[in-house]
Each structure stands twice: as C-alpha cells, then as structure tokens.
Specification:
Blueprint (H helix, E strand, L loop, with lengths): L49 H10 L4 H4 L9 H4 L1 H13 L4 E5 L5 H9 L4 E5 L12 E4 L6 E8 L9 E4 L5 E6 L6 E3 L6 H10 L8 E3 L2 H13 E10 L1 E2 L11 E4 L2 E3 L8 E3 L2 E2 H8 L2 E4 H7 L9 H6 L1 H18 L8 E7 L6
Parallel strand pairs: 1-2, 1-4, 2-3, 4-9, 10-14
Antiparallel strand pairs: 5-6, 5-8, 6-7, 9-16, 11-12, 11-13, 15-16
Helix pairs in contact: 4-5, 7-8
Bound molecules: S-adenosylmethionine.
S-adenosylmethionine binds next to loops.
C-alpha cells in the first residue's frame, strides 16, 4: 500500500499565458470590525444571504463558472504541472483502482493529463460547465455525481467554491447572518442563524464573540463532501484545498474574489470567482481519513523538487533541461508558502465498511 494511504481511518468508520497566480498568492486583508458599511438596523432588507447570492453568482443560469474557465482566472496545481496528475495516477495504481472521477473538473485539464499518462484508466469529470470540445473522447463528462461510484475521486479546489453562509458578530455580541446586495456587495446583518446544525457547527468549529468578527459556516462543505463519500462504494476520495483549522481561523473570514489572474473586490455579481478557505478540521472530522499538507502527500507519491546533477547538463543537455523543468514544477507544487501548504484529506472507503 502506498505510503500516503497508510494510517487512514477507514470510512467504517494557472499555466496559462498570463495566469501566474494561485488563489493563495493573496494580499492579506484585515477588516476593521464593522468596517464594511453594514446596516445594523437588525432587520433583513430582502437581500439574499451570502450563501444564496454566491450560489447564484457562480452557478446560476449565467453563473461565472458556467461561462468562465477557472484557468483563465487563477492557477491551480492542475495547471502548475503534470506532476500533480502523475501523483494521482500513482495513487490510483497503488490503491488498485481503475477509475478516476474529478469533481469540479474545470475544463478537464487534470483528466486529459491523466488520460495521456494512463489511457487504460476510466475517467469521469463532474462539472457544472459544459463538456470542453477538445477533451479526449475517452474522458466521460457529467453535470452531477453518479448515484454510485468506485475508484479514485479527486476534488482539487472544489470545496472552497461551495457556497456557505457568513455570520458576523453584532455590537451586542450576537452572531447574525450576513446578507449581501449582489451588484454592490453592500452587506447588512440579518437574524441569528436558526438551523441547529449551523448553531452547533459554529459553537464547535468557529466560536465567535468579538463584535465585527466573522465566520464562514462549513456545514455546506462538510455536506458536499459527505455526499461524495456516500456514493463511493469502493475507493479513495481526495479533497485538496486551502484551508484552516481552529487554531488558525481568520478573525474576519476569508471571502475572496479573483478575476483575470488578480484578486479583486469581493462581490457575488457573477463577474468574478468567489471563494473562501475550507475548515479542513471539521471536514476531516465529518469524513474520516487522513489530513496532511500537499507537500507531504506529493513527496510520499514520489514528487520531489531536487535539482538534477550538473554533470547531466554536459552529457545530456536536453535531459538536463527537462529534469530542471520538472524540478522547478515540483518545487512550486510543494512550496509550503504556496500550493505545498494546501491540505489533502484522503479517505479510503471499502465495501465491507458499508455493511
Ligand atoms: C476552482 S475550480 C477548480 C477546477 C479544477 N479542479 C482545477 O483544479 O483546476 C472549481 C470548479 O468546480 C466546479 N463546481 C463547483 N460546484 C460544482 C458542483 N456542485 N458540481 C460540479 N462542478 C462544480 C466549478 O464550476 C469550477 O469549474
């Protein structure tokens, strides 16, 4: 069994022209409490909650991700190097799996590379956007997860785009749902969250007390990932994303927007990406499995950033150059301050675990 799978609690328990920035190369912005020009009037003004506005902005009839290729706006590990796909193929082989399902598949870049590396694998992209015209015919494409699936399920930078509710503590110390006007991004505070599940989640995973502090409620991400795992009969599920744990929650939340390779003002207006870091400790508690950083996961799957021996430059210059390219791509994928700091949650599901 490949090293990266060891110790897993079983469930039985942008290389694109101008895009050189990942969504973690972000300007750190700290907000002053109440600094967003909220209405504290205490009544809901008919504006949608963040979760509703975000859903509509990205996935509505003319939503951002229905029209726009993620790679045109930011760079993920998939775009950074084929070594990322190679590591996942390695994982599928080691786990004895013959199918790879990519959830939130973008324009199918990961699966196209996987197909080139091992054409014998059965591949399926699950994505709200239409099937890319240039995708190899062997790669399947669906808008929804199949009712049941076996194999390696990968979701790279999917969960951070799963919309969630946002709460903010008012001047009296009560956490209230934040509502937002999609075109202007002006916010107002509504009622305290009423769903017991949300209240419990906040208390357990992101307790707030200081006026002006905010949280993104992780229940929708936990539920989205649980839905994937529920359908998985036999296989391994890997969620890869930027995230935080209880010790490192951002006091004013992590909502961000990106467009054309740069961070822009956050707005659920359909003209830009909307994302927030994933509460990965909550996700891991709900899903089970092993939580590790991408740097560690990729190293265990054979991705190393060691520079090639200089002697090779003299004996075989072309090989030296391609080894140098691979080393620099591996260094980007494993950089602890960038993609290497992403979390991998790996959960193995076996048929016996279901009975
Ligand atoms: C940040 S992009 C990541 C794309 C790709 N995985 C990568 O690493 O480059 C997130 C993608 O997830 C897709 N997505 C979000 N929610 C989805 C859902 N419920 N079903 C299918 N695709 C979804 C979006 O349309 C978007 O293409």
């Amino acid at each position: 069994m490949v090293q990266v799978l060891r110790g897993i609690r079983r469930s039985a328990v942008r290389r694109l022209g101008h895009i050189e920035r990942t969504r973690t190369c972000r300007r750190r912005r700290t907000r002053r409490p109440g600094g967003l020009g909220h209405s504290y009037a205490g009544r809901v003004t008919g504006l949608p909650t963040w979760r509703t506005a975000w859903q509509d902005a990205l996935y509505g009839a003319d939503g951002f991700f229905r029209r726009e290729a993620p790679a045109a706006h930011f760079r993920t590990s998939v775009h950074a190097s084929p070594l990322f796909a190679q590591a996942l193929v390695h994982l599928a082989h080691e786990a004895g799996l013959d199918t790879v399902v990519d959830v939130g598949a973008g324009r199918g870049e990961l699966l196209a590379t996987v197909h080139a590396l091992d054409p014998s694998l059965t591949l399926l992209g699950v994505e709200v956007a239409a099937r890319p015209p240039d995708l190899p015919a062997a790669v399947g494409w669906a808008h929804h997860l199949p009712a049941s699936l076996d194999g390696l399920v990968v979701a790279n930078e999917w969960l951070d785009n799963v919309p969630c509710d946002v709460v903010e503590v008012d001047e009296h110390g009560s956490a209230r749902l934040v509502h937002v006007d999609p075109p202007t991004a002006a916010e107002s505070l509504g009622s305290p969250p009423s769903e017991p599940e949300v209240v419990d989640w906040l208390e357990k995973w992101w307790p707030l007390s200081e006026p002006g502090t905010r949280a993104e409620v992780g229940t929708s991400r936990d539920a989205a990932w649980a839905d994937v795992l529920r359908r998985l009969g036999n296989g391994v599920a890997v969620a890869v994303d930027y995230g935080h744990t209880r010790e490192t929650r951002p006091p004013f939340g992590s909502l961000r927007s990106y467009r054309d390779g740069v961070e822009v003002e956050v707005a659920p207006d359909g003209s830009r990406d909307v994302t927030a870091h994933v509460a990965v400790d909550s996700l891991a508690a709900a899903a089970g499995g092993r939580l590790l950083r991408q740097r560690e996961a990729l190293r265990q799957l054979g991705v190393r950033g060691d520079r090639p021996d200089l002697a090779l430059a003299r004996s075989a210059p072309a090989s030296y150059l391609s080894a140098l390219v691979r080393a620099s791509e591996a260094a980007e994928l494993t950089d602890p301050a960038g993609l290497g700091g992403f979390f991998w949650l790996i959960t193995e599901v076996e048929p016996a675990a279901r009975s």
